[in-house]
Amino acid sequence: MSIRERLLEIAELNNDEKLMHMRGANLDEYILSLNSFIKSLPKLEEELKSTLAERDYFSFSGCLSDVRDLLIHIHANELAEDCLKLINSLVSCKPEKVEARMTYLLSVLTMLSIDIQMAVYKDEEADEEAPHAAIDTAESWKKSILAVDDSEFFLDAIKRALHGAEYKLTCVNSGMAAMKFLQKHTPDLFILDIEMPEMNGYELAQKIRAYGKKAPIIFLTGNSSKEYVLKAIKVGAADFIIKPITQQQVLERIRRFI
To answer: Which of 31, 46, 126, 203 has its CA at 20 to 30 Å from residue 179's CA atom?
Structure first.
């Protein structure tokens, strides 16, 4: 799958048909705009959080306008419109409502940035392999998932998100526990937190691959910085789930693979 084809799968970038017809120099120029968005977003996110916490709505509005300009430049027009609506609501909405809307918007922006990075930087050869793990013989009709996070809060959030879904979910709270589980089991998909003590998600992913397990790896994160995402891609990231976790996002990301 080419970079353009992967970009076409990102719903937020498909508000018009411009990307559909991009080729050559036009596509190269567009990718430069995407890189500018990726590079600028983390700093703008921090400024948005800071100014909102201080209820400095003038600075907050200016920062959100900068985000909107970036979104327009990459043809993410619906998200740009959401930014404008939030700016216009600052006068009439209660601070709590503004904060809730901003938290949701930041989550969507982080996911968009990571989706773009996955499309632009992912190894095309690895993408074409689309490896699938063998299924455990027990309850073979269910696809199995191993979730690893040192936080019980996020493990519980994953459990709630998958409640009622036809998956066999196993949750462990450390990389060592995960490796012990893999001695006897072969999951169809991994969900790994990145920030864990003793063995972080990057290190665990490398051990999973060295152990011969080829199932897709989805990382849990709230960080969209380029260095962070590239490191995850290099150790085998197939996708990301953005914190705070929602049921819709978890199911949508998992169903891309199993």
So the answer is: 126
